[in-house]
Specification:
The structure is a single chain. Helix content is about 20%, strand content about 25%. With about 475 residues, the chain is α+β, with helices and mostly antiparallel strands. Strands 3, 4, 5, 6, 7, 8 and 23 form a seven-stranded antiparallel β-sheet that branches. A six-stranded mixed β-sheet has the order 10-11-12-16-17-22, with helices on both faces.
Length: about 475
């Protein structure tokens, strides 16, 4: 079936959309409108909030000619895309790319960066002045080569103090000099030191750090996991294989810097943590009414994510069959990370330690300009692709209303005066998890602060930085 066979592409939706359309061979799409036509039709078919946007209504245009006239009013596909979305207060995450190769790289953890992962915070008493702090450093990066380490502070870029108006342009440069500072009783004090950093294309291995803390008869596995990237599932599975071989009794999963990724990888991670729930429903997908009706009528199974016993390449999963897990979170913990927390709660005890998460319970798929909106037979005339929000995700019981974030059971913020070494038993958040394990839920004094001091972080600044997506999306034209 050709995508242009009918303006609304509803041969498969004939039971749900009762609208005739003329033979569009008599009303072709002009070459100059091909990209805009792709944007409108893709959003009309899949966008989660399609029913709320007047210009995406099924009866908005009677013919392709009428649609063409509308599309002519938009000189850029990006402008059309933004205009067709619901308010950004509701949809914070739908994106469009003029080069799908960049998008495909992001889906696999490849970005242009210097290896310094950072957070941005307001200076005490200010609502405009900000500074950065290093959360971790990527191996084999320019930041590592320049001896950047966790806990370093920077107050300026290229000699210009950071503020809420200039941070994007300054940190968006391919090369820049960071001017360092000290943290003295909550005050940022420049120390005169500086480091020049240069970005390159880096693929981040999200399996950043793992170890085992042996305390008495307890073997506590620790994993710092920073992104749900399918191409690193084998490394993730190997860590769980090692945990299993070492006989760990408890697991601390550190997701405080994990902004999300693949729903499929999240499901496989949940299966590594457990193992006793094979083929049971981990999470459910809720699409717009048209897509949901189609999937429920033809293949309702595609709306379910089930615990599995294999990773993406078919290798057997190394599962731990745990009944309790400790998860470290922050205001940067988003999407697929939140899915892990929410999806596991009906099956096991989840002890969340840290601060409230982002609150992203919606996911996307990649749409190409092709007869099926999939990657095969995509247009050779351009490289546009969309990543619109198309689904809401819940646990097995349909529970998933956490748009304001998931609150921790044990609240604790990171203290810039005492960050500690990631993975070390004395690192404050990991240490709290250890104490919770050793003292049967009792923990000592914990650092708390006003969350309003946090501004942004490196991943939230990036396009498609906090995402949850389907690795293999179901399409109505398959």
């Amino acid at each position: 079936m050709k995508k242009s066979g009918c303006i609304f592409l509803y041969v498969f939706f004939i039971a749900f959309v009762f609208q005739a359309c003329e033979d569009l061979d008599d009303n072709p799409v002009p070459a100059a409108l091909k990209v805009n036509d792709f944007v409108w039709k893709g959003l009309n078919l899949y966008y989660l909030w399609q029913a709320e946007e007047e210009n995406l209504a099924d009866n908005r245009f009677a013919t392709q000619a009428d649609l063409n006239i509308f599309l002519e009013g938009y000189p850029s596909a990006e402008g059309l895309f933004e205009d067709l979305l619901v308010a950004r207060s509701k949809d914070r995450f739908s994106v469009i790319f003029n080069d799908y190769r960049v998008l495909e790289g992001l889906l696999q953890g490849t970005t242009k960066n210097n290896g310094m992962d950072y957070g941005l915070r307001y200076k005490a008493g200010s609502t405009t002045e900000i500074y950065g702090w290093v959360r971790y450093v990527l191996p084999n990066s320019d930041a590592e080569n320049k001896n950047i380490v966790r806990g370093m502070l920077f107050h300026a870029i290229n000699g210009t103090p950071l503020n809420t108006d200039n941070y994007r342009s300054l940190l968006g440069l391919d090369s820049y000099t960071i001017h360092l500072a000290n943290y003295e009783d909550g005050t940022i004090v420049p120390n005169g030191q500086f480091v020049e950093l240069t970005k390159s294309n880096l693929t981040e291995n999200p399996v950043y750090l793992s170890n085992i803390a042996e305390i008495g008869n307890k073997k506590i596995g620790y994993l710092l996991y920073n992104g749900f990237y399918p191409n690193f599932e084998n490394q993730l599975n190997q860590v769980f294989g090692d945990f299993k071989a070492q006989g760990i009794t408890h697991l601390v999963l550190d997701l405080r810097y994990n902004s999300g990724g693949s729903v499929d990888t999240a499901t496989r991670l949940a299966s590594m943590i457990t193992g006793q729930f094979y083929n049971q429903v981990f999470s459910k997908q809720q699409w717009n009414e048209k897509a949901a009706n189609y999937f429920n009528d033809t293949n309702p199974e595609v709306l379910l994510n089930r615990f599995t016993n294999v990773i993406g390449n078919g290798n057997a999963i190394e599962s731990l069959t745990l009944s309790k897990i400790y998860i470290l979170t922050s205001g940067s913990t988003a999407s697929a990370s939140e899915l892990i927390i929410n999806g596991l709660k009906p099956y096991m005890q989840v002890v969340q330690i840290g601060t409230t998460t982002v609150g992203k319970n919606v996911g996307s798929i990649t749409l190409y300009d092709s007869p099926t909106f999939g990657k095969n037979n995509k247009s050779g005339a351009h490289r546009y692709a969309m990543q619109p929000i198309v689904l809401r995700i819940t646990d097995k019981n349909g529970e998933g209303d956490y748009v304001n974030g998931i609150e921790p059971l044990v609240e604790q913020a990171e203290n810039l005066a005492n960050l500690g070494e990631l993975g070390n038993e004395t690192e404050p958040l990991f240490n709290t998890a250890i104490q919770y394990i050793l003292e049967n839920g009792r923990v000592g004094e914990r650092f708390k602060e006003n969350n309003q001091l946090n501004f942004k972080d490196r991943k939230s600044l990036a396009v498609f930085g906090s995402e949850m997506y389907l690795e293999k999306a179901p399409f109505v034209f398959q």
